[in-house]
Design goal:
The protein contains 19 helices and eight strands. The chain has 476 residues and is mainly alpha-helical. The chain has a domain at 163-400. The strands form four sheets. Strands 1-8 form a two-stranded antiparallel sheet. Strand 6 (234-239) and strand 7 (242-247) form a beta hairpin. Helix 3 runs antiparallel to helix 4, helix 8 (191-207) packs parallel to helix 11 and helix 11 (271-292) runs antiparallel to helix 12 (312-331).
Amino acid sequence: MISLAFTVKTEAEKIFTNLMGDGALRLAADSGSKTNFHDIFGTLKKSAGVTRQRAGSQLLFLTSLYSNASSATVRGQILTRIHRILINYKSFINPANPNNIGPENPILALGAYAALALAKDANMVSYTQASSSNPVTQTELKSLLTSYVSNFYTRITGEAGYKNVNQPNGKGVTVSVGLLAGTKHSTTALNGTILGLGAVHFINAAINGAGNAIYSDLSAWFTNMCARLRANYSNSRVNNGLTELCVNIGAGRAGDNGGNIDQMRGYFPSSGYNAFVIWGLNLAARAYRIAELRLTTQVPQFKNAVALSSHVCQQTAAEIMNYYNTQILNEGRSFEIGLPNFLPGGPNEAPGGSKEPGSSAAPTEGYALAGYQHFTSKVTPEPKFIANSNLQFNILQESNADKASVTAYLYTTAWYGGHTLMTSGNLTSAIANHAGSAALPYNIVTTNTGVKAEAGASRILQGLAGAMNSGITTLN
């Protein structure tokens, strides 16, 4: 095994110093890295969901690095970039119509919360470092986040992904025929719902307190979700004395999910999606920890509310991480879309490739055919829906070729804390085997040019932030 141990704060500062400039002068010229890693300030890009997600990831990274930085000079540079991101993205923290229930809005809100908590602990009434004429105040951030909690909670609790958890068996589905027989899945996508409600739960507890209806409701909901993940939404096994959960993306056929858009990819697990599931579960456990430590309404930094391993959400997250640790050991990589029920490898491509408009032709072989057979077993969708399903499935399937970046997605799971997946050296070694000298975080985000390089780079930022907020000082 290739050994690539590194100190988290040193590697994080190297990324900041070399990729994010040395203050306002260089920040104004941000553009053009191979991974588009820090080019988040283009006027046309800011409204895009993926760009908001990148901005939120950077805020989490920067706020985590601040107290770990090597000098006052670097800390000043960090504050300048935080302020500049807030100037550009504060209008997106609480969208008037939060109709996107994917991970974009929650990650930006979490980043904004981290900026608020840092400002509070640093006794800064406002961020003024990038522009004294355009301050971003604690009061403004708190107001935006309070509205975000209310609006996003109201929006997402109207969705089936929230409602189904409280129904008998969570309305989970077990496939009964063909190559997918025995595969369990949720009828809605899990990652956006779990991460979104995890963010709401944490921010609500930190700002509004634990004695309110949202806190009580989400505490019960996450307990139910953990039960659904273990029994109804994934396959479970005991391996080497540890329980493992193989969680599928969720959604599936329109007849299951109550809509008219089929998502064949819903029957398969994804390291990128499930890293967000793990993160969302951890945030729910941190919300409980805030209440336990009597930090509610005090806007604590994430590092001051580290979840305990005994919490049910942490236990469930660990079981998902156990699965990925075994996959890394057995296959030397993870998959953007893998096979369900602990089977090795990834699925074959569906017709039409990964470019619009896709193909409405039915898959004819392998697991793509199995997915198609299941989601058409009740009713055959319109051709445009089949084309979309094939297209979305192929986007993930073709990304499997970028082994280094897709495996790096698992860095996000550092938010859980000190799990073997992150601390054993197996993950970094696996990336090294596919990326060579590009295996350390700094090298991945600067030199990796695969199709998923930008996404992998953003996940590494999330992971380094998670490590610094979970007491992890060294990774292997």
